[in-house]
Design brief:
Length: 182
């Protein structure tokens, strides 16, 4: 996999994984998790977790996700007995199965998960359900709205650049269409 320009910009701004982790720490989920930033987090030029692995090393996404999951568990007051192995297993699943998500999308997800009921204990099933729900109810509609805006802007550009049909040609076309009952 080749390093994208987005990944290159991230690497220039945060040359080490430590610097990346300090900037996008647990508290970043509350600032990036705001509803009005969802479009920027999804459609913006941010790295996917696979790109994070590529530029900072294979274990980087899992390490970052463990920290984020720990922060989520603490902020929700979940069972302090959450095992490190359980967090690492879930982080591995997230990095492997959802590696196509951007780190900013994960920050959105961790904020979104605060509305779920964990019944006092850390439950990976609730987190995975929350991610599927976020994808279905937040991510997909946001992408569709963005694509619709792009299509509408493109159509408007086409209309503005269209060459008008000469009146004589339009008259001939209307006569032909009239012959065929249209």
């Amino acid at each position: 996999m080749e390093i994208s320009s987005t990944a290159t910009r991230l690497l220039v701004k945060y040359p080490t994984f430590k610097e990346f982790g300090e900037r996008f720490n647990v508290s970043a989920a509350s600032s990036y998790g705001k509803r009005d930033l969802v479009g920027i987090c999804i459609n913006g030029n941010h790295c996917t977790m696979r790109e994070i692995a590529l530029i900072y090393g294979e274990s980087a996404p899992k390490a970052w996700l463990v920290v984020q999951l720990t922060g989520l568990a603490i902020s929700l007051g979940l069972d302090a007995k959450t095992r490190k192995e359980q967090l690492l297993d879930l982080a591995t699943i997230l990095a492997d199965d959802y590696g196509w998500l951007k780190y900013t999308e994960f920050l959105q997800i961790f904020n979104y998960l605060r509305r779920y009921d964990f019944y006092g204990r850390f439950d990976p099933a609730v987190i995975l359900k929350g991610i599927r729900d976020w994808n279905k109810y937040v991510r997909v509609p946001t992408i569709e709205a963005h694509e619709r805006q792009l299509r509408e802007a493109e159509e408007e550009r086409w209309k503005q650049n269209a060459v008008p049909m000469p009146a004589a040609t339009r008259e001939k076309l209307n006569k032909l269409l009239g012959k065929f009952g249209q």
